[in-house]
Predict the structure of Large conductance mechanosensitive channel.
Amino acid sequence: MLRGNVGELTVAVVVGAAFTAVVAAFTDSFLTPLIGLVTGGGGVGGAFVVGGETFTYGAFVSQVITFLLPAAVVYSLVVLPMTRPAEGRRRGAEAGPAAPTEVELLAEVRDLLRAQQAGVPGGPPTR
């Protein structure tokens, strides 16, 4: 549990829930009445009746906005900052960890074999 980002994930969930509540209140208090004013609808912010059935498109539009606002914030504050460094590494702008070359690996093997043959203390154990 101490590994990973459990604490950060917990904070993200709590902040996300609080932000969603704020967006829902904003939608209910401002956007739904605004949709009602623009479309001439009643309390649901726009509706029409077909064959005796009432379709409340204003409520649907306000729920879509309630979804899009947090999604846009999360995308702009989390996704974009995380993808920019990855794109830079893919393009070669930021070098990742450099792997040793074949020559460096061979030189290391040579040095270890010499130390083993000489019986140097601290070197690899001899057989």
